[in-house]
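Lab notebook, design round three. We kept the backbone fixed and only want residue identities now. Task for the bench partner: fill in a sequence for the structure below.
Input structure tokens:
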């Protein structure tokens, strides 16, 4: 009597294929993020009103988030289908040249997005309530 054990789960295969599809759009999302960053720099240089700068900064944040999600999907796909079920396989895959490259790219984008969220999005001043102003 032979026992058959599948190498990976069906769910892992589905997630792998979905990540491959999302990862294909990474260059387009990265180009969109670069364009949003360029527009933010232009708006800041033109001394536009604070509302316009905030709008451009939020657009850049949204573009960075899209690019980050696509990079994370591409990284998971680069690790291979076994990495979805097995943490040791994921750890080994991160040590390969392609896995290390995508891990570094995800970390770079995540750092850029967090730095932008902390220092790059201006806050709009709020009106002081009358009770406090007196």
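Proposed sequence:
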């Amino acid at each position: 009597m032979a026992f058959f054990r599948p190498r990976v789960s069906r769910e892992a295969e589905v997630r792998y294929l979905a990540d491959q599809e999302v990862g294909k759009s990474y260059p387009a999302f990265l180009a969109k993020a670069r364009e949003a960053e360029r527009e933010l720099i232009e708006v800041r240089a033109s001394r536009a009103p604070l509302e316009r700068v905030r709008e451009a900064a939020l657009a850049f944040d949204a573009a960075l988030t899209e690019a980050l999600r696509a990079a994370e999907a591409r990284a998971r796909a680069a690790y291979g289908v076994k990495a979805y079920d097995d943490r040791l396989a994921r750890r080994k895959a991160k040590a390969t040249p392609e896995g290390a490259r995508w891990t570094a790219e995800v970390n770079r984008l995540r750092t850029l997005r967090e730095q932008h969220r902390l220092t790059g999005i201006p806050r709009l001043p709020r009106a002081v309530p009358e009770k406090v102003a007196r």
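Keep this in mind before ordering anything: The mean pLDDT is 92.
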